[in-house]
């Protein structure tokens, strides 16, 4: 497995995943371009129609490059996908490059593509397609592999954005949000070591919790994410030690959600 994440000069995110397949490029090419093969492993219907790509739902994509049996590149909404096949000994090296705008959705994309490419490998080998494994755990593995846990520190303020594996309602329950009331101390799961928590100033179930600290306001916000889970954005005042404390707290939450699932 050889998977990397980078930020392009235009600010978009590029995910690159490579897999060696013990099959010639021509056979791999058929599997990544012909509808009869694609429907067994690709996450949507895909049909190449001239310079258009039809997905069975939503707007059509566009063929960006088509060079059999080496390169098939196409758009999908605002994203771009590039499938590149190179000879590698008696087999092939297949590299997927996915370009998108939502950096913190990268682990969801990567875990999905990992599963798809495992199914593709099985199809090429003539094996039964594997059943999906623990997608939540795979997602969390990719959070670590792709370096999506660091957070930001700027001008005395910390910010963490984290894709989670469970819907907002379940996350809110895991945080004991049902006990959050304006004027009362926040439930313990909304706090971190070294952060002095004042009373709750705002609580919108399943969405937002805010409370004051000595240096400003801590805000937990749950919004729509990439995949099946909510996107957590956590902001507040602090320094490097505060950022580390919040990062540890968010990772504890992410692990607890896996156990709850």
Automatic annotation (TrEMBL):
Residues 23-124 form the Activator of Hsp90 ATPase homologue 1/2-like C-terminal domain. This is SRPBCC family protein. Belongs to the AHA1 family. CDD domains: SRPBCC_CalC_Aha1-like_6 (cd08899). SUPFAM superfamilies: Bet v1-like (SSF55961). Pfam families: AHSA1. It comes from Nonomuraea harbinensis. InterPro entries: ASHA1/2-like_C, START-like_dom_sf.
